[in-house]
Amino acid sequence: MIVEELKLMHYRNYKELQLQFHPKLNILVGENAQGKTNILEAIYVAAIGKSFRTNKDQEMIKMLMKNAYIKVKVNKLTDKVAIEIILSKEMNKKIKVNKLSLTKHGDLLGNLNVVLFSPEDLKIVKEGPNERRRFMNNEISQMLPKYYYTLNQYNKILQQRNKILKDYRGKRFDLDIWNEQLINSGAWLIIYRRNFIKRIALLAKLMHRKITEGLETLEIQYDSNVKVKDDDELRDIKINFSNKIEEFKEMEERRRLTLVGPHRDDLIFRINGLDIKNYGSQGQQRTAVLSLKLSELELIKGEVGEYPILLLDDVMSELDAKRQNYLIKNLKNIQTFITTTMTEPLNIKNGEEHKLFKVIDGEVSIFSSK
Ligand SMILES: Nc1ncnc2c1ncn2[C@@H]1O[C@H](COP(=O)(O)OP(=O)(O)O)[C@@H](O)[C@H]1O
Ligand SMILES: [Mg+2]
């Protein structure tokens, strides 16, 4: 898929902006704090419905303004889609697809697929399990809107179950009905996650091996809180889930918190057998995330039938020349947006078709186009 056009009004530091993009390579060059990432963020919001930088939609509205507007025109293999997002300080955000207002925001998912790669993504391998669950949630939701709805449902049940545990004052209480609901939606999350990780792990292993020229083997393992095997069916997972809840019953009453379920899942990344969270070098961690991101491109292609767009925010300078080359070479059929502060950017010298934009203080001009 290709993003043909972006329009912004009162978005971040943009008063008004209209850009036509190159179908292959788009490079946004500028000093810090000029508005490069804001452009990627706007495209991301049009794809996912929320920012990757903030949970507060209002932050994206230009200072002193009441509303912000994003419009993205997408060209897909089979159709064209126009996505509009209206952010407001007074109302909930509005999302329109081909001029129709969506009643459920989740219905936006799948209209525009993106893979984002930013320095923040290093957190997926370096930081706590929250980051890895966020990664799974975002990526699976994009490919499978059903997952998004199940996750929302699970989180609501979890909240209510936690509230009941919190209010527990030594009286008898009955969690059965909540347990059943927790298990019903939780077991689906576990199945979706297991299947997703199985597939992406395989792709990432191949990718990582190629990038490291056969020196490193990357393994990604789903470390689920309720244990699940490769061939477990929904029924098996529900039984395991239920047994584990039983096992943790007393501890939950003591801690007044739901301790069992996919909200406690994790992933393990290993290179040549060693957990890279603790034992990987910075370079290995970066390459692992690069492999992961490139795998997502392939996974989405397999799932939705065409490549997503790729947003690379400030990552080029962090990769060595070899990795940069590998990346650019692998992106021939994928529309890519790159932000960089480098004045002489990247490996586009060898005749790659592209459009290069200069970004200065919320104004964008075309620098060169080929
Ligand atoms: N809601 C907002 N209203 C006005 N300006 C904003 C808003 N949010 C961020 N900015 C401005 O946007 C700029 C940062 O843009 P960003 O795209 O992150 O920069 P970079 O070019 O470094 O990627 C900063 O100058 C910041 O003050
Ligand atoms: Mg930036």
TrEMBL record:
The family this protein is said to belong to? Belongs to the RecF family.
Q: Name one GO biological process term.
A: SOS response
**Functional summary from the UniProt entry:** The RecF protein is involved in DNA metabolism; it is required for DNA replication and normal SOS inducibility. RecF binds preferentially to single-stranded, linear DNA. It also seems to bind ATP.
Q: Which InterPro entries match?
A: DNA-binding_RecF (IPR001238), DNA-binding_RecF_CS (IPR018078), P-loop_NTPase (IPR027417), RecF/RecN/SMC_N (IPR003395), RecF_2 (IPR042174)
Q: What CDD domains does this protein's entry cite?
A: ABC_RecF
Which residues are in the RecF/RecN/SMC N-terminal domain? 3-346
| One protein family per Pfam | SMC_N
User: Which gene is transcribed and translated to give this protein?
Assistant: recF
- Any idea which positions bind ATP? 30-37
Protein's recorded name: DNA replication and repair protein RecF
Please give the organism: Anaerovirgula multivorans
Q: Name one GO cellular component term.
A: cytoplasm
Could you list this entry's UniProt keywords, alphabetically sorted.
ATP-binding, Cytoplasm, DNA damage, DNA repair, DNA replication, DNA-binding, Nucleotide-binding, SOS response
